[in-house]
Every structure is written in C-alpha cells, then in structure tokens.
C-alpha cells in the first residue's frame, strides 16, 4: 500500500469509523473539520512511529506536518528521505 492510501486508510478507520465520505479531500484540515482532536494527534503519531517506522520529534508536531492527508504525505516523504 502506498503512503497516501495508508494514511487515508488510517484516518478513515480510526477517526471516521469507516465512513470515507467524511474525508472530502486530501487537503481538508483534520483538526478544523473535527475529524481529529488532540487525542487523535497522539494516535496519529503512534501510527507514524509504529506503522510507518518514523521517529516523530516534538518539534514536528505542527499543523504544517500533520493537519491533512496532503501534509502528512509530505511529512512522511521528507522524514523517509532523511533516513536514507
């Protein structure tokens, strides 16, 4: 499964309880739209660290990295490139 689909699948399964119609676009703010709250951010970080095998430092816990599917895919890609 590619990164974008893995992220979307996680969000739909864990925050939208399987209802993919709640994720109207890959650029929608997960926080502003109410899809994810602060506890959800911690669940998301756990997903990134355990499933995506990334280390997520506290400094990276900003909306620019984690607040939409597009932002998450960009963040994951950048973190994976720095590991190589």
Count structural domains. 1
In the CATH hierarchy, the third-tier topology is known as Non-ribosomal Peptide Synthetase Peptidyl Carrier Protein, Chain A
Oligomer: single chain
Q: Mind describing the biggest β-sheet?
A: none
Number of helices: 4
What's the mean pLDDT score? 95
User: What class would the helix/strand composition place it in?
Assistant: mainly alpha
CATH H-tier superfamily: ACP-like
**Low-pLDDT sequence parts:** none
Helix content: 40-55%
Give the CATH level 1 class: Mainly Alpha
How far apart are the termini? 20 Å
Return the string of H and E elements.
Answer: HHHH
The CATH architecture assignment turns out to be: Orthogonal Bundle
Gyration radius from CA atoms, angstroms = 12 Å
The total count of strands amounts to 0
**Apparent shape:** globular
What percentage of the residues does DSSP assign to strands (E)? under 5%
SSE topology sketch:
Layout: H1 3-14, H2 38-50, H3 63-66, H4 69-83
Helix pairs in contact: 1-4
At a glance:
The protein has 84 residues and is mainly α. It has four helices and no strands. It has a single domain (3-83), classed as Non-ribosomal Peptide Synthetase Peptidyl Carrier Protein, Chain A (Orthogonal Bundle), CATH 1.10.1200.10.
What does this structure look like?
The chain is mainly alpha-helical. The protein has one domain (3-83): Non-ribosomal Peptide Synthetase Peptidyl Carrier Protein, Chain A, CATH 1.10.1200. 52% of the residues lie in helices and 0% in strands. It has 4 helices and no strands. It has helices at 3-14, 38-50, 63-66, 69-83. Helix 1 (3-14) crosses helix 4 (69-83). The longest helix has 15 residues, at 69-83. The radius of gyration is 12 Å and the shape is globular.
């Amino acid at each position: 499964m590619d990164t974008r689909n893995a992220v979307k699948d996680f969000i739909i399964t864990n925050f939208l309880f399987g209802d993919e119609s709640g994720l109207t676009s890959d650029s929608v703010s997960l926080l502003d739209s109410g899809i994810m709250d602060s506890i959800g951010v911690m669940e998301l970080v756990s997903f990134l660290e355990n499933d995506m095998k990334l280390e997520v430092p506290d400094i990276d816990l900003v909306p620019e990295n984690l607040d939409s599917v597009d932002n998450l895919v960009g963040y994951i890609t950048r973190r994976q490139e720095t590991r190589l």
